[in-house]
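2024-03-11 09:14:02 INFO worker-7 job=invfold-0412 stage=load source=structure_tokens
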């Protein structure tokens, strides 16, 4: 719209100037007539006072001025028109950028490390029973264990089958009994005496203690020597 007003301004000026041209010509014509009239007047005789002629401004002389003023005013209006149009132009509104709302980041769920269960510690096995001593005098022998031993059933220490003398079964007629209430000592009696001071080996196999623990080692070989004197 502003560009269109600017393009029409020269045309308006030309039109206003053209309208004012006849008025200017009219203004110049009376002045020339008055001048010519005053010039044509005969010279006055010497010593005669020449009357001064006062020419009243004609109403027409004021009209061109007003017209000229009126003619010169439109350019000012025309120049001011773009300003008015510019003021009427919509002021661009500033673009307000919306601030994005912060995205809530979910907090990571803490991973709880599984606490390893303590490994079940097996209770140490109780020590196994052992043969500590074999003593012999004349026709009997004592076999000593380190703890109370089983007295009946499988693995009982008061059974002839679990003993061997020098790799052989005990001679017929031999007996075996517990030599103590806990049977940690057994007494073996034979029908014949052993030679005094002679060396022998007692072999014990398959016996267990009162809690059922097997002999260690199983079988156990225990060397011994008979007494030199009667016991």
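2024-03-11 09:14:09 INFO worker-7 stage=emit residues=231
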């Amino acid at each position: 719209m502003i560009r269109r007003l600017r393009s029409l301004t020269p045309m308006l000026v030309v039109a206003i100037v053209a309208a004012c041209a006849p008025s200017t010509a009219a203004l110049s014509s009376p002045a020339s007539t008055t001048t010519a009239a005053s010039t044509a007047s005969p010279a006055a005789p010497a010593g005669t006072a020449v009357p001064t002629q006062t020419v009243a401004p004609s109403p027409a002389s004021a009209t061109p001025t007003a017209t000229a003023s009126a003619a010169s005013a439109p350019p000012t209006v025309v120049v001011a028109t773009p300003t008015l149009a510019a003021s009427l132009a919509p002021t661009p509104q500033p673009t307000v950028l919306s601030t994005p709302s912060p995205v809530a980041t979910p907090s990571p769920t803490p991973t709880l490390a599984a606490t390893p269960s303590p490994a079940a510690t097996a209770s140490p096995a109780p020590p196994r029973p052992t043969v500590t001593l074999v003593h012999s005098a004349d026709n009997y022998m004592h076999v000593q264990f380190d703890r109370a031993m089983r007295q009946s059933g499988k693995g009982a220490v008061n059974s002839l089958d679990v003993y061997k003398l020098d790799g052989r079964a005990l001679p017929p007629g031999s007996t075996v009994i517990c030599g103590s209430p806990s049977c940690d000592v057994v007494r073996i009696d034979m029908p014949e005496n052993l030679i005094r001071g002679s060396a022998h080996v007692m072999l014990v196999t398959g016996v267990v203690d009162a809690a059922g623990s097997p002999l260690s080692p199983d079988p156990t070989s225990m060397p011994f020597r008979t007494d030199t004197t009667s016991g």
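2024-03-11 09:14:09 INFO worker-7 stage=report msg="Residues 175 and 189 are 5 Å apart (CA to CA)."
2024-03-11 09:14:10 INFO worker-7 job finished
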